[in-house]
Design brief:
The complex is a heterodimer of chains A (112) and B (112). Chain A has 112 residues and is mainly beta. In chain A, 0% of the residues lie in helices and 57% in strands. Chain A contains no helices and 11 strands. The N and C termini of chain A lie far apart (31 Å). Chain B starts with a strand and ends with a strand. In chain B, the strands form 2 sheets. In chain B, strands 2, 4, 5, 9, 10 and 11 form a 6-stranded mixed β-sheet that branches. In chain B, strands 1-3-8-7-6 form a 5-stranded antiparallel β-sheet, with no helix packed on it. Helices cover 0% and strands 58% of the residues of chain B. Chain B contains no helices and 11 strands. Classes of the chains: A mainly beta (112), B mainly beta (112).
């Protein structure tokens, strides 16, 4: 349960704020991911990092800016968000991009 | 690219009955098929997976079957219990390009 951690667990921010979400994995994995999960909707892949290099950006608006300083840490920088960006943001990691992903507990984001 | 379709989107069963969730995939090169369970307010967690060199795998009350010819795989839960209530996601891994693609999810409700 503590292999992938995310902070904060809950975040309320105004549309003009700037905040960052943090993800850390302690599993020695090489790939990390950001997903968005809205209520009663599937997992939407946002970004993929493999060996610290971004390998996928799923047409995510520029108000979401990822950063991967090393294989263990992944950030999602947020600025000028919209209310429809309110969702659960899940981080995941895997040893290899083709195989099992381990998810963090998520950050519940509310944009007011 | 790869596409994974999951059905049904919601499923309601009586306690003790069986539940079956089906997924189809488009890329015949896919060789890894995990299933995740996401309980309300919690992270998705791997419950069972299968690779393309086997046709069926069981773990107590859950089993997964794979039909490579038809490109579909299914999750079977027998003797369902209320604690099986959750959203279940299937996924398939593309061999070339290396990416795990998730289905849309099935919300399973087990009524006591």
């Amino acid at each position: 349960e503590t292999g992938v951690t995310q902070t904060p667990r809950h975040l309320v921010m105004g549309m003009t704020n700037k905040k960052s979400l943090k993800c850390e994995q302690h599993l020695g994995h090489n790939a990390m991911y950001w997903y968005k999960q809205s209520a009663k909707k599937p997992l939407e892949l946002m970004f993929v990092y493999n060996f610290k290099e971004q390998t996928e950006n799923n047409s995510v608006p520029s108000r979401f800016s990822p950063e991967c300083p090393n294989s263990s840490h992944l950030f999602l920088h947020l600025h000028t968000l919209q209310p429809e960006d309110s969702a659960l943001y899940l981080c995941a990691s895997s040893q290899d991009v083709r195989y099992e992903q381990y998810f963090g507990p998520g950050t519940r984001l509310t944009v007011t | 690219g790869e596409n994974v379709e999951q059905h049904p989107s919601t499923l309601s069963v009586q306690e003790g009955d069986s539940a079956v969730i089906k997924c189809t995939y488009s890329d015949s090169a896919s060789n890894y098929f995990p299933w995740y369970k996401q309980e309300l307010g919690k992270r998705p967690q791997l419950i069972i997976d299968i690779r393309s060199n086997v046709g069926e795998k069981k773990d107590q009350r859950i089993a997964v079957t794979l039909n490579k010819t038809a490109k579909h795989f299914s999750l079977h839960i027998t003797e369902t219990q209320p604690e099986d209530s959750a959203v279940y996601f299937c996924a398939a891994s593309i061999e070339q390009g290396g990416k795990l693609i998730f289905g849309q999810g099935t919300e399973l409700s087990v009524k006591p």
